[in-house]
Amino acid sequence: MLLNETLEQLRALWLSGEEHDVNLSQASARWRMVSPDAGKFLYQLIRASGARRIVEIGTASGYSTLWLALAAQTNQGKVTSLDNADDFRAVAEARLEAFSLAHLVRLETVEAGEWLSALEAGPVDFLFLDADRSSYPALWPQIRRVLRPGGLLVMDNALSHPDECAPFIEQVLATEGYLAETYPIGKGQFVILKDE
Fold this sequence. Notes:
Layout: H1 4-22, H2 36-49, E1 53-57, H3 63-75, E2 78-83, H4 89-98, E3 105-109, H5 112-118, E4 124-129, H6 136-146, E5 147-155, H7 162-173, E6 178-183, E7 189-194
Helix pairs in contact: 2-3, 5-6
């Protein structure tokens, strides 16, 4: 259960992230955190679906990882968060420690495609995609393989970066057995159900 105090701490952390990012011209230096309403949406989806094996592609500073881990904690699950760079790993680790969630999360510095290809078929209940959007179409075959029937995939930035997300969205919509919809929450959450 999310307590009001935890929600307030998460909002304060997000505000500090917005202050951090506002004057940075290089995108690679920004923490690029999901909004609190998007975080709550992720939490709700994980809790409602009972997801226990959760994968995040795109750790960055670990803010969304906190939301995933809070839901995983209640569902007695675990989170594996992948990033191809460790620029903000220390920030993510500190945040997980501050919220007493480090024991629920495995942070991996690895290319997502490499990690997914080594995973057996069908064990992932929930996958959150918030990384280099140009890589998503190449990841789709591996994501389809590792996501269990009834599993959920959520992609951030569907509305804030429509041109960058369009190839992936079109690819998903052309694939039988997947039900997808975009929700105007945060920067736009594209939610995909593996309906097999």
